[in-house]
Amino acid sequence: MVLLYSTRAHQLLQIVSFFLFTLVYSQDACPLQTPLYPPPRDLLSSQDVKVASDNLTQAIEEALTTGISDLGLLPINTTTFAIKVFSSHTEDSIYEYLYTSPTYSPETGAGAQNTTLDSVYRVASISKLLTVLTLLAHDGYTHWNHPITDFIPELDTIARNQTSRVQWQEITIGDLAAQLSGVPHDYGFEDLAGEYSNEQMMAMGLPAVPAKDIPTCNQGEAVNWGNPCDREEFLRGIPSEDPTFAPGTTPAYSNAAYQLLRYAMENITGIDFPSMFESGIVKPLNLNSTSLLVPKNANVGIIPINETVSVWDFNLGDGDAFGGAYSSANDLAVIGRSILQSLSGTSALNLSSTLTRHWLKPLSHTTSFKTSVGAPWEIFRYELPNRPNHVIDVYSKSGNLGAYADIIALIPEYEIGFSITAADLPTNPLPNVWGLADLIIDRLSPAFDKAAQQEANRTYAGTYKAHGANSTTDSYVTITTDHQKPGLQVTKWVSNGIDFLQSLAALSGFEGLAVRLYPTGIEESVPGNSAKRVFFRGTFDYDTSGQSKGVISACQSWLNVDASRVGNIGVDEWVFTLDKGRASSAEPRLMRKQLRLV
């Protein structure tokens, strides 16, 4: 019997050995680039989140008093701002903070006296995010990879006549959205030749500018104030500028790209942009404070000094697609929550879960290891102190115009996000908005991680046995969680009376083999009842800390997902059945047995 037992175990282990032992080797865990746990659903009940929120408030108030935080300078006492942290699973705020600076004074009587979460601010380049959201809601990715010359015939003519250095026929809709087009930053907007006379330019050491090279319209703040370029003027002027890069080379921020995107969207849909914006975002989400035009009632807005100095009523014309929108912290939270809800198909937005998952991905990188670019996401990668080899991606879009600076940020790992709206004069509030965002991520993310781990423990931890199993002859597994280790931990795995974990470790020659499970985002309903099946994939980690520490030898668990199968079943696939929020069974699919919670 002993011989047969050993032979059976060895045969089984031979089947899976290629998968297991070309796998992850690291002194630390090497998780998959997925959430470590299912997103937490009940953050308001988490004591860790409550403590972290108190710590965040303390840090903000220390910065208000001293002008610094433990992350650096943060002179926010002159900045009026509103903060809201939100979750996709509740309409209640996870955290909020309001501050009206004593220096804030709407001198003309226009503007709110104090900020609230519903106070309206200009959100500047957050408009770019809203423009792409409008495009996706109306057209999805249908025309994403089509050249823009298909939709802006004036540029097609210019390209055929070769009268511009910009490779218009090579630029796609997606390039415009992802800041990969190489289109110039602006046309007219903040062009010094439109702001200063030739005499003034020459006094600064600059040459005189020929009249033909001075923009005839301008979305800037000087001589052509109130005279934004219309479509004809813009399309006549932008081809005269040189590209920043060839299309697809590197991200280079461009407002002009989004004005072109606006024109292309109108051609694709046959609908004017303001109507698209209204039907794609404002109406489905019942937004009360979001618009492309200046609010008719200025008293809803935060307006430092007056409407002109603050740039509150500055008209960007067709530049509304890159910087014209107005919104509030509450409305931005509604928008962010709806994007997150689109991941599970529960959003009022016309976005499929697959489309949303694709959208929440980087499309290019920057010179910083921590920063990537999407469409038009500004993506920041944050590593928790106790989570080596795992990064949290923060998908954000910020804006800055005149007295205003704002940010909306999403953390899909936890299905949470935050919005900050701010205003200040004469200080530019953007560095303060970024500093506040840094504080939110630094203080709250570890608590969200802990809350996710604790919810996973309540939902999945336990011992699961085959029907009629006993401890010596059949199959069972024990699942736990540990805040110092990622994922669900498989601490016991007995298959047909064999200690499977011990056998794997013996065959590999490595001690301390660890099996960890990570959510895949795949769920399915169980026919006939309210239960659902939740799918996970596993990694098999063991310590080879003496191996190379070079870049190619880094954590590469993604290479081995589903890398070996037994009878068309991946050896790393697990399924849990959840009933009323608690796992009632576990199924290591390799074993072809459903194990019940005991």
TrEMBL record:
Residues 114-430 form the Beta-lactamase-related domain. Residues 452-596 form the Beta-lactamase-like ARB-00930-like C-terminal domain. The keyword Signal applies. It holds the Pfam family Beta-lactamase. Coiled coil: none annotated. Residues 1-26 form the signal peptide. InterPro entries: ARB_00930-like_C, Beta-lactam-related, Beta-lactam/transpept-like, Beta-lactamase-like_AB/R. Keywords: Signal. The keyword Signal applies. Gene3D superfamilies: DD-peptidase/beta-lactamase superfamily. SUPFAM superfamilies: beta-lactamase/transpeptidase-like. It comes from the Eukaryota. This is Beta-lactamase/transpeptidase-like protein. It comes from Aspergillus tamarii.
